[in-house]
């Protein structure tokens, strides 16, 4: 994944990560999660010495400034998990989970935090964007539509709508 292709990239303007941020991310890792392809489990991460946390902080800063995410950190191990009460011989009875390295999750969290701040501070997203935004959900969008229809009805306006339901939309890669 490349974050930038030119010298005037937004990513280079992000605040560098702080060791305290990396430490907070490590503290939030759940011990009972399976490790990624690197084999480093979260219990190991939680017991890292300070100098290693400082090194991780430097690496994540380099990722942001150079715009290059390590290939090994992008590699997930996909494991099928049987859905409760489903037939184990039916392939649709399984849901896939991806096991990513904890270092990848930490870097992604810190980058996402900065990216979301940038999008918010610079009003990049339109107000109608509700998906994948903090503190907004499909319920908010539904309320917005109901208000729009109610207002149109009160003003004796006609309202039309087109609805598109994509089956298992979040299970697919677009």
Structure write-up:
The protein is mainly alpha-helical and 174 residues long. Among the domains are: 14-76 and 102-124; 127-159, no CATH class. Helices cover 42% and strands 7% of the residues. The protein contains six helices and two strands, in the order ααααββαα. The chain has helices at 19-28, 42-46, 50-66, 71-74, 102-121, 138-154, and strands spanning 77-82, 94-99. A two-stranded antiparallel ribbon has the order 1-2. Helix 1 (19-28) crosses helix 5 and helix 3 (50-66) packs across helix 5 (102-121). The longest helix is centred in the middle third of the chain and has 20 residues, at 102-121. The protein is flat and about 70 Å long. The model has no long low-confidence stretch (mean pLDDT 87).
Task: Give a quick summary of the entry.
By secondary structure, the chain is mostly helical. It is 42% helix and 7% strand.
Topology:
Blueprint: H1 19-28, H2 42-46, H3 50-66, H4 71-74, E1 77-82, E2 94-99, H5 102-121, H6 138-154
Antiparallel strand pairs: 1-2
